[in-house]
Predict the 3D structure of the following.
Amino acid sequence: MPPPESKISEATKVPIILLAGASGYVGGRLIPLLEQHPVALRCLARNPEKLRPLVKESTQVVRGDVLDPSSLDEALRGVHTAYYLVHLMSGSKDFEKEDRQAATNFAQAATKAGVRRIIYLGGLGDDDDPKLSPHLRSRHEVGQILRESGVETVEFRASLVIGTGSLSFDLVKSLTDRLPVMLCPRWLTTPTQPIAVDDVLAYLLAAKDMPPGESRIFEIGSPDVTTYGGMIREYARQRGLRRWLISVPVLTPYLSSLWLALVTPAAFEVGRHLIEGLKNPTVVRDSTALEVFPIRPMGIREAIHKALTTSST
């Protein structure tokens, strides 16, 4: 028996949108925005009881797990557009294998259900870089699996997402808040092009209204290219904190992750994988997104100010 929303969508002629990854940072921010649109929203969750109090009564929450193929068929029934905002790095020791399997399961189920479009948020980084970190390599592989399903896939590639609650930004925030003097490894000088969470959400929303076409990859970021050291300095400036960054090139990513585990609330494994990715430049090399979408991302200074303002309210 199809979910009730299928009947509602037929009566009101609105598309059914599935959100996989609804309990994550970006997914959780996307829910209330989608609820304002003329769509029938359906959220996939391993623990529906935790998510239901956070959504409107009109939003359907279905039990499902991307690692359990049998749970996806009913969830994807009648779906027009599916958001895939799943990343298993925080809950798996072999996240590359599990992310690969999860994407394969979802791609196959979406194809079987006749889904018209998948919208996916991945990571920046050069595919041709032989030293691309496992974290970024996995992000790119997931996008490739979704595209190869035959379902039109719109993939956004982003660097650090600036916003309170974003794990990467919270790492910067925790380091700066807790350490007046920081021993800075070389990865703090790697070029990066962060983006405000509000701009990420704007791109994700705009993608669902694109005319049908081929699968595409869009690289997105603020107009500013900086470094993680630059992010720390700007955050400290806006907080009125005096911080000293001392370069120590011998501090390896592994030792850095031990250091992070001591001074931040992030889990050790997640911090280690994120830091491994910091050695790779994550900058926008293709500006096609600015031609296709009317969105003009805010600069880093404004993005950090907005994140600080939001966290204090």
User: Anything to note?
Assistant: The first helix runs from residue 4 to 12. Residues 181 and 244 are 5 Å apart (CA to CA). Residues 1-11 have pLDDT under 50 and may be disordered. The longest strand covers residues 117-123.
